[in-house]
Amino acid sequence: MAAKKKRKTAKKKRKVTKKKAAAKRAVKVRLKLTPEQEAELAKAFGKASVRRIKNISIEKIAGYLASDVGMN
Amino acid sequence: MIVRSLVDDNLPDGWRIETTSVLSRDGDNIGILHPATLHEIVGDEISAILGPAGRVALTEGTNYIEALSACGALLLGHREEISKVSTLLQSARMSRTTSYLCSISGNCRQVLTAVRHIQTARVAVVGCGGIGSLAAMLLAGSGIRSLTLVDNDTIEESNLNRQIVWSKDDIGQLKSDVLARELQRRFDDVSLALYPRRADRSFLQLLLSENDAVLLTADSPLGIVPAARRIAARLCSLLVTGGYSFKHAIVTVTNSQSNSAGKEGNWQSLEFCIPPSFGPANALLAGATTSALLHQLCELADYGASSIFGWDVDTLKNSA
Hints:
Helix content of chain A is 61%, strand content 11%.
């Protein structure tokens, strides 16, 4: 019984570690724009759109190779 | 293709993405969609986009065009700039380099400036052995159109195991001559100047003042690298060096910000010296040196005043 409980706890611990590792991989950032790029975007899409673009969070991953995404 | 129809479904009315990578709105060209942009498909919907800046999830309320902008996949520009980038992306000679430059540029103008810097630069490659011969090929392949090759060595049988440009028939010929022949076979738009001679300090000074950049991979005379770095710093010229110190592969970048001070050592080798040259590491050094040179030349990277990069060849760990 005790051994079973120990195994369950170990499994739980491994799960948490995996989750933490995944979270570590998926660092979220926001796009940094130069004043020139910001002006270009504002001209093309409007200032409200630039505000929304700057608020979109980006997952910094080393390309699709580091993700679970397959290439077609 | 399924992804293409899903992309069209996500575009607002009046927007189009051409197969030439051009994004337009009501017939007006807005920018270039990075041609390597990936779409993550879940079921029959696009769930995320992967661009140069990373992955953006397409959640409810996220505008597809704004998501493209956020992940760096959209390069805005004027009509003419867009047309020129699109043409480069269709050209056999420059398409892959341009696609890479699109990954590190903020707009079409930056891409075109980088391409212009590359295509108008004069670069001297000093030392055409294991690193230099491959580096010259990579520079020409990336779009450099004016190369000066400096090497007084002839091809020996012992070179063939790691210097991939030569074949058995070339043994005994000058490396600079054979390299020039092979470069012309691949790239007929490259102009070449050949100097089958050793690079002493006065000649290096001349090369550094007459070229936009010098790539130094020669391992002799001993002490040539620190001497060249001092001259380049004094002249505010761009110098990139690549070579070995035992198992350490070392790249240095000297530019207009570098300091010419530093003491001169007097190192001497034994008369039976065999400098290390390991084929796979030569390729690593050729790639690293040419990459640093091209990025600095295009002003798309700033290596600062004192840049030395190094790797332990066996572990690939940073050793600088």
